[in-house]
């Protein structure tokens, strides 16, 4: 009876050990697989970024540099690039990323740490909502606000309030709209500094809010000439 019981325990221990080893091995294999996929994606992203350059020579030089320095190490990607550069180095297409249509709504949520800061609405004029430049500028603004650590909630919205600020006043400007008699106006100097430091943004103008009061919320309107 005791021998049979010992045999059963031994069987259970071996079975359990094999299950553990299987789980560990599976985790190692999955981890390696995930890492391999991440490496391929990173190297593919490097190639696509190099193809964004305006000049053909710059695109070619960037790709050759990445090959020579082994930044592109994935065999299939290397083979494809080397073969293409040998056959068609004079016809290397430029890749321009398309800006996916953005959906209006909350793009940065407030947290316990940021809830005490001013909220922001990043507006894009409705008539240029699908304009790539407008969306690119809006994304830059969102990134600046997110990285500042001094913004509460950030929303992306369409500007349709032309009775408050007409189109001709907004075009080709970065328009900050604020309740001048409220506390959030104190955030303007630091906001201006961060926007100017970002570079590549339209000329900045600040207007008093003449519409419905929006306490503790600042609006920034993007409206490039379409």
* Helix-strand string: HHHEEHEHEHEE
Proportion of strand residues: 15-25%
Instruction: Give a quick account of the main beta sheet: strands, pairing sense, barrel closure.
Output: 6 strands, mixed
Termini separation comes to: 89 Å
Please count the helical segments. Answer: 6
Structural class: alpha/beta
Please count the beta strands (DSSP E, at least 2 residues each).
6
Principal-axis shape = elongated
Helix content: 40-55%
Number of domains: 2
Strand order, largest beta sheet: 1-3-2-6-4-5
Residue runs with pLDDT of under 50 for 5 or more positions: none
Report the radius of gyration as a whole number of Å: 28 Å
Question: What is the residue-averaged pLDDT?
Answer: 81
Textual characterization of the structure:
The chain is of the alpha/beta class. It has 2 domains: 2-88, no CATH class; 105-222, no CATH class. The protein is built from 6 helices and 6 strands; from the N terminus they run αααββαβαβαββ. Helix 4 crosses helix 6 (188-198). The chain is elongated and about 65 Å long.
